[in-house]
Amino acid sequence: MAFQEKLTTHIECESCPIRHRAVCAKCDVDELELLADMKYYRTYDAGQTVIWSGDTMDFVASVVEGIATLSQTMEDGRTQMVGLLLPSDFVGRPGRDEAAYDVVATTRLTMCCFRRKPFEELMENTPHIGQRLLQMTLDELDAAREWMLLLGRKTAREKIASLLAIIARRDATLNLISPKGKVVFDLPLTREAMADYLGLTLETVSRQISALRRDGVIELEGKRHVTVPQMSRLLDETGDDTDGGVFA
Amino acid sequence: MAFQEKLTTHIECESCPIRHRAVCAKCDVDELELLADMKYYRTYDAGQTVIWSGDTMDFVASVVEGIATLSQTMEDGRTQMVGLLLPSDFVGRPGRDEAAYDVVATTRLTMCCFRRKPFEELMENTPHIGQRLLQMTLDELDAAREWMLLLGRKTAREKIASLLAIIARRDATLNLISPKGKVVFDLPLTREAMADYLGLTLETVSRQISALRRDGVIELEGKRHVTVPQMSRLLDETGDDTDGGVFA
DNA sequence: AACCCCACTTGATGTCGATCAAAGCACTGA
DNA sequence: TCAGTGCTTTGATCGACATCAAGTGGGGTT
Predict the structure, then answer these.
(1) What averages of pLDDT result for each successive group of 10 residues across chain B (248 residues)?
(2) Do both B146 and B162 map to the same domain?
(3) Could you tell me which InterPro entries the record lists for this protein (chains A, B) (predicted)?
């Protein structure tokens, strides 16, 4: 599924993931050179706001390391996370100079930035970049729509299970499955961030996680370290179709 | 905002909107000729399901006339609408042969279809098409994310007001504003479809519409015909930032 | 006219998650 | 060591929306 696809992508290039994600495998040396001239790195601390909605964006960027969130806030302070940025994900929009969302670093975050104008010119001359960006955007659209189903129709328990399943699945593909088929991972988000993502309050998130633990669906060590003894039991709680899953 | 942008677009070409939306203003005669060879039209009745999620899609298409909905359904029948297709909107995805959503005609619907393989080849040779598609997809992503905020954080009343505002604004730009600044339009959706869009039940939709009528925010004639006496009052109910609106 | 059908409205009641409030717990720095 | 702070858990209560259950009313058919 799209949301999982997105989360399973990861860096394949030490120096700059944008080459792979935005320029694609077909990129040749000239393109790399072009990119090398325009790029610069920036690092942010956990909790720092990278971009405020409404800011002027004179760059586009790609996450190199760390996790960031995309979120929207209403006047009265209600906020909804609309995207999770993981390494290799793209930020910014060619052809628009105003940021539409807040971008907040969840962990220490390194981004590889490109000045927007030259990047746009590069896109004109290098069809692969545009094509790769189109594929990435379509994946994000699928992810957003999957999330709409979650926000609109799932119960709190299903929402939590879905989020855990996505994180577990991503980490599982990163070879963190323990010998006996258990999946173990650390939650990269606070309870509040999870609540903002799921359209819940942090208390409800906490209660539902406790409930899943009580019911033996997950095990908790500390506040962040999660063990999933049987992935299939977690998936049963998500409300999703589970056919054809790796963990069935 | 993005969602409104999307809804204000309309056909600018009698024979085939895809030329304008997907090929963009820079398209030359050759591109038009190419498209002419591959396209064919299909018409559906209101209520008909055009595509089932999981179907093989050997075509991409563009809405010529009418309204369709994109929706996702869970095993137990809960459904969430994830997009509204209006004239000139694009359906389908280059590079994927399986439909990810149900597409249902809300009104009588005419689509202009292109066989997928030739369309993909055309995209390879004609960068403008890909660039236009990228812009459209980015707009849809913004719309989806705006909808995520609505689904996750808005109250039932705000959801209804937001939906009415979007429809009103679209129709207003289509010059349906009556002399005294009132906005008048017909709802293109049933209460149930609105509920599926907003993540509510049809009863709640009905009650909230009644409440807005009681409070004088809207006037109702029959079940579908709506008059908005003061757009600003409706906008106040949406919970959105209202700065810079045409109707302020 | 009489009937049905379907979309819609309205009412009564129930429940899930929000809200308000108070601890608990790990970590920091003095 | 101890207070201070931020994140989390848990409890009590409330309220918005869902659910269940009758109606209503317009449009079409016979």
Answers:
(1) 33 38 37 62 91 93 90 95 90 91 93 87 80 89 97 98 93 64 90 98 98 96 93 94 55
(2) no
(3) cNMP-bd_dom, cNMP-bd_dom_sf, Env_Response_Regulators, HTH_CRP, RmlC-like_jellyroll, Tscrpt_reg_HTH_Crp-type_CS, WH-like_DNA-bd_sf, WH_DNA-bd_sf
The DSSP output letter for B222 is T
Chain B residues 147-186 within 7 Å (CB) of strand C: none
> Based on the number of CB atoms within 10 Å of its own CB, is B142 exposed (0-12), middle (13-18) or buried (19 or more)?
buried
CB contact under 8 A, B240 and A151: no
Residues B223 and B143 in one domain: no
**pLDDT tens figures, A51-61:** 999 999 999 99
List the one residue out of B80, B81, B64, B77 whose CA is nearest residue B20: B64
Clarify whether residues B111 and B206 are in a common domain.
no
Q: Are residues A140 and A160 in the same domain?
A: no
Is strand D within 7 Å of residue A230 (CB)?
no
Q: Are residues A55 and A147 in the same domain?
A: yes
| Residue of B101, B149, B197, B204 to mutate when probing chain A, most A C-beta within 10 A | B149
Which residues of chain A have a CB within 8 Å of the CB of B144? Answer: 141, 144-145, 148
Domain of residue B168: give its range.
Answer: 156-236
Cα–Cα distance between B195 and A220 in angstroms, integer?
A: 37
- CB B152 under 7 Å to nucleic chain D: no
Distance of CA A146 to the CA centre of its chain: 13
Of B137, B153, B240, the CB nearest to A141: B137
- Residue A136 confidence (pLDDT) above 70: yes
Q: Report the domain count for chain B.
A: 2
ipTM: 0.87
Residue B84, token pair as written in the block:
């509204």
User: Is B242 within a domain?
Assistant: no
